[in-house]
Structure formats: C-alpha cells, structure tokens
Write a structure and sequence with these properties.
heterodimer; A: Dna Ligase, domain 1; D-amino Acid Aminotransferase, Chain A, domain 1; 3 domains; five-stranded antiparallel β-sheet; B: mainly beta; two-stranded antiparallel sheet; about 30% strand; globular
Chain lengths: ~350, ~70
C-alpha cells in the first residue's frame, strides 16, 4: 500500500496526517501540487500509488490534479466528484434540495437586478455568499434593501467573475453557535459546537469550539448529506449544521478538505487517524494485499489500479443538476423568481 | 569517534523575514510547511530545509478553503 499526500502548503493538519501514515507503517510520499508536471500520455510515474489524499488548499489546483490522477487509475480521496459537489456552494445546495435534506432556503441569480429580486424573495435579513471559499470570507448579511443594493453593486463592480453568480440564502436566526460534524465514510465520528457572539461562527473567525454530542438525528442527517455529495462510496467530510428555531437542524455547508486541528482536543477523537484508517480500509489494494506493511518499506509497484466504481459519475452529476434557463433560480422550488 | 559528532543536526532556528525575530522550530520542518512568527504573527512558508529558509507565505486566494 502506497499513499500520496497531495498538498500545496503543509499545515498542522497535513503534519498530523503524515504522522499517522508513519505510525501505521504505511508507505507514503508527499506531492507538492505546485511542482507537478503531468504527462497525460504516460501514467507510469504514478501507477505505484494506491491512493492520493487531496489536501490542497486551492480548489482549482486540487481539482485539476485529482482529475488527472483519477484518469490514471489512481484513487483520490476525496474524489473529483466530491470536490465539485462540496467546493461549490451552489452545487451543494442543489444536491441538498434534490435529496430533500433540510438546508437554508437558497436562491441563485446571475445579474444585479435578478440578485435583488432573489434577495427580496428570500426576505430580510438575507445572506450573500461567494459560491467558493471558506473561513467565512466575504459573507454579507443584508438587513434591508439599501444594504442589498450596495452589496450587490460592490460584488458586481469589485468582485471577480465568480461574483457574478449571486448566491443568496436566508439568514437563520440560530443561537450563538453552529455545529460541525466530522464524517468518515458515512459515519459521524465526532463533532464540535462553535460558539461566537458574531453571526459568523467559524473558528477561523474566532469561534470557540467545544464537544458536540452525536445524536441519532445528527448521525442520520450527516449520513444522508454524505450520500448526497458522495453517493455510496463515502468521503472525508466536515458538515456544518445550523439549529433553526422550530425547524431542527439544517445542513449549511459541506467541506471536502476539512481542517481539524482545533477539534481533536475537545472531542478526544484522533480525527487524522480515523481518516487514514478509512482510506486504507476502503482501498482496493487492502482487500487484494491484506494489512498494510508495518515496516514502512516501499511496496512493490502495482499495476494500473482501476478506480473504484464511482457511485455518481461527473456526467450524471451534471445531468442531475441541470438548471435550465432561469435568470434567478430558487434551488428548492424550481420556479422562476418573479 | 562518535559518528554523530561530525553530522550535527540541522539548525532549527531561522530569522523571520518580516520582523527579523528568531524563530525556533520544535521539530525538523518539511518543505512547504507553514510556521508562524511569535513576534509579528506572520505566516511563513519553509522553502528550504537545508539550509533552513522561510519566505512570507502567500495571502489567502479566492478559491482557498476547506
């Protein structure tokens, strides 16, 4: 068994994953995505790999590299389809709506006038988010029409092309906290409560973490959300939940390259070890070769390993999420915004 | 002769490129690893381990995230 850790920066999380690979005696290598040169006609450099664990911080680079590895027959965790499903909030929301998983009400619009109509449809306060990005960056809560017009104009004028997709969501009046659940495969292995007096509760923005009890409701909801984005193959995910008064839990976001350094101590769960163990246990090479070698010695080069049957191909994902010709789109009702 | 005497461990201290404070690392770093200066809080990327060198880490980019 040989595993590569694909990275662009080595943060605490990557160090912890490397430590677990070493302690489990798994042959591994580091691949800096910035140094990669792929000859797409020659996969021989990579065929000794049984799996690549994507830990790139940049989604565009990650997706490009993972697509190549998968085409070369190297399993990627997470796979490209999961990166696509989770790395774009629009796709995540569409999948949640499609699978009837409770999620904040969301509208999409593609120009300024439609964006304002989408905000008015959602009602105030509303939240505008970029469709990519993390850590609470560039979230805007708009409490009235004046604020909505200002934010929409700023996004149109100052934002990148990506900001021409207006992702508008209801503001959920949650308590001063949200929940993050770590999912390995489909199993919710642990979770944290992120507290903050600010409406953005990300720990990256100063939220403080404490342990979350994994209730049957949380376990079931997270398993359903994981299946929605990863099919039956499972994935390594961090699922953010909101407690909506009178409505129960809502799936807010799903992260495919989760950060966990601040969650190990409060939960008491060795999250990186559980991640590595799952990758090994679900690898086709494990079934073929038995337990991972304990010496850390390089394993024999494998033949081209078939990618495990993908529960949802990219083509079916695209087909599943076909939008049609809507200027402003309500992800939940498939009706055009008036 | 002690074989380790002729091969001293690599230095684990480096100067912060932002504030010139001395940064001491607890373990041998990896190329690409991010370290933080305790003095100025700058995030630095290890660009070489022998000799140990750091550069200011890139600012967050649009598609960065979890």
């Amino acid at each position: 068994m040989r595993i590569a850790l694909l990275h662009s920066r080595i943060r605490v999380e990557e160090r912890l994953l490397l430590d677990e690979l070493a302690s489990l005696g798994i042959d591994h290598e580091l691949i800096d995505v910035r140094e990669l040169v792929f000859d797409i006609h020659d996969a021989s450099r990579w065929t000794s790999l049984d799996a690549v664990i994507d830990r790139c911080i940049g989604q565009t680079q990650a997706l490009a590299a993972v697509r190549v590895f998968e085409r070369f027959g190297v399993r990627s965790v997470n796979p490209a389809s999961v990166i696509e499903a989770c790395g774009d909030k629009l796709t995540t929301s569409l999948l949640m709506a499609r699978h009837e998983i409770p999620t904040p009400r969301t509208c999409i619009a593609l120009d300024e006038a439609s964006a304002l109509a989408a905000v008015e449809r959602i009602g105030y306060p509303a939240v505008l988010k970029p469709t990519t990005g993390s850590w609470g960056r560039l979230l805007a809560r708009v409490n009235d029409r004046d604020a909505a017009e200002a934010v929409i104009e700023h996004k149109s004028t100052l934002g990148s092309v990506q900001h021409s997709v207006f992702y508008v969501q209801e503001y959920v009046p949650k308590p001063d906290r949200d929940l993050r659940v770590f999912v390995v495969g489909e199993e919710a292995i642990c979770g944290i409560v992120r507290h903050s007096a600010h409406w953005i509760t990300n720990t990256a923005r100063g939220g403080v973490a404490s342990v979350l009890e994994i209730t049957p409701e949380i376990r079931d909801l997270c398993a359903r959300a994981a299946r929605a984005v990863a099919g039956s193959g499972g994935a390594l995910l961090a699922i953010d939940l909101l407690e909506a008064p009178g409505r129960g839990l809502l799936v807010s976001e799903i992260n495919h390259t989760m950060e966990f350094r601040n969650s190990i101590a409060p939960t008491g769960v060795n999250i990186p070890r559980r991640m590595i163990e799952w990758v090994v246990a679900t690898s086709p090479a494990s079934a073929a070769r038995g337990p991972a070698p304990s010496t850390g010695a390089p394993s024999a080069p494998s033949t081209l390993t078939p990618v495990p049957a993908s529960p949802r191909s990219r083509a079916s994902l695209i087909e599943e999420l076909k939008l049609g010709h809507w200027a402003a789109f309500d992800a939940h009702s498939r009706t055009e915004v008036a | 002769m002690n074989p380790t005497a002729s091969t001293p461990p690599p230095a684990l201290s480096v100067e912060c490129t932002e504030c010139a404070a001395s940064i001491t690392l607890e373990r041998q770093p990896l190329c690409g690893e991010i370290v933080r200066c305790r003095e100025c809080r700058a995030e630095l990327e290890v660009t070489s381990v022998s000799p140990l060198r750091v550069e200011l880490a890139p600012e967050v980019e649009e598609d960065w995230g979890e």
